[in-house]
Amino acid sequence: MTKTLAPRTIALALTLPAAAFATSAAAQSSDFEPEGGFYVSVQAGVSSPTDETFDGIQDPVAGSPGVAGAPAQVEVEYDEGFNGTAAIGYRLPRRVFGLLQPSIELEYAYSEADVSGGSFNGGIQRFDGDVEVHTVSINYQTDFRWAEDQRFIPFIGGGIGIADVDHNAAYFPANGIATAPTFAVTGGDTGLSLQSNIGIQYVLTDNIELQTRVRYQRITGLDFERRFVAGGADLFNADLDGRFETVNVLAGVRYRF
């Protein structure tokens, strides 16, 4: 469970130098009016999900092992995976407060990661499986602009949207005997996605900008099921509530029309 605090730690570490950078840049502000307009962007990179805990109460149907009313707490650990985005947006052709140039965009994002481990009710089990996330969000981005010929443009931003999470974490006792899963935390559910970004872009030409960013995404309101799957069975055991959090490191290109 070593990655639980990673999103908050990374966000804090990146916010402080960005604030200092913006403060020093403000002193160089001039009277120019930056160009705006529509753009498209694509990015790809690494997704690093936080280890999560899903909680519920066992309510097994006939044939499913378990004790009605007993806790069902599943801790799931994830490997690093892939994240990719595509967006269309509009950058306002003006600055706010003499330094900030806002943009708004509609974005689709996809991420996936493998399950690397976990435990049920604090026990010792072997885990495998994967998780896939599809997100549609409305994002804002604020560029720090202080010169017409500025090549490096730092930015911050965020977004709100809807995420569809397809979860499949199967596990079985770590006794070296079982060769197939006995239970699984599985299902697909839709939750509220909130995200924040910090990064920098490089103006390559009048129309092309290269970007890199760190993004923290949090998806809440997820509901999965613990199911008994041994021997070809597929029987309900418990509803599980939880969330999904990840830190993504992305790089890509933006084309301005």
Automatic annotation (TrEMBL):
Q: Does the keyword Signal apply?
A: yes
Which domain of life, per UniProt?
A: Bacteria
Pfam families from the entry? OMP_b-brl
Which residue intervals define the domain Outer membrane protein beta-barrel in the entry?
Answer: 16-257
Q: Has UniProt tagged this entry with the keyword Signal?
A: yes
Q: Which UniProt keywords apply?
A: Signal
What span is annotated as the signal peptide, if there is one?
A: 1-27
Q: InterPro entries under this entry?
A: Beta-barrel_OMP, OM_autotransptr_brl_dom, OMP/PagP_B-barrel
Give the NCBIfam families listed for this entry.
autotrans_barl (TIGR01414)
What is the name of the protein in this document? Outer membrane beta-barrel protein
Q: What is the organism of origin for this protein?
A: Erythrobacter rubeus
